[in-house]
Automatic annotation (TrEMBL):
GO terms for biological process: proteolysis. Signal peptide: none annotated. This is Glutamyl aminopeptidase. Belongs to the peptidase M42 family. Keywords: Aminopeptidase, Hydrolase, Metal-binding, Protease. GO terms for molecular function: aminopeptidase activity; metal ion binding. It comes from Streptococcus pneumoniae. It comes from the Bacteria. PANTHER family: AMINOPEPTIDASE, AMINOPEPTIDASE YPDE-RELATED.
Length: 118
């Protein structure tokens, strides 16, 4: 019967959540936070499993020359971007503990600029 309190805040890092493991072992995702789809493809990410494993993955999408319509190349949607961990199929991905709901975060690190001020 005690009062309940909800503490809500923004996330420190944007990312993705696995929404589907496809039969070929790649993943479809939903975004966590705001992403510009133009900068997501061909980047390195880490998939974080529920049991604490970090699995390197890379993002990919349909090449622009294959998306040309009457108006030229189209911008990919997040739903069209696929994440690939190099698995042969869905069963192999699952054998590494990957499940829908696991998160994917950028595999990046902070750097100093040439003048070492930032």
């Amino acid at each position: 019967d005690a009062p309940r309190v909800l503490v809500a805040s923004h996330m420190d890092e944007v990312g993705f959540m696995v929404s589907e493991i496809k039969p070929d072992g790649t993943f479809r995702v939903v975004e966590i936070g705001g992403w510009n789809p133009m900068v997501v493809s061909s980047q390195r990410f880490k998939l974080l499993t529920r049991d604490g494993h970090e699995i390197p993955v890379i993002s990919g999408s349909v090449p622009p020359h294959l998306t040309r319509g009457k108006g030229g190349p189209t911008m990919p949607a997040i739903a069209d971007i696929v994440f690939d961990g190099g698995f042969a199929d869905k069963a192999e991905a699952e054998s590494f503990g990957i499940r829908p709901g696991d998160t994917i975060v950028p595999d990046s690190s902070a750097i100093l600029t040439a003048n070492e001020k930032n």
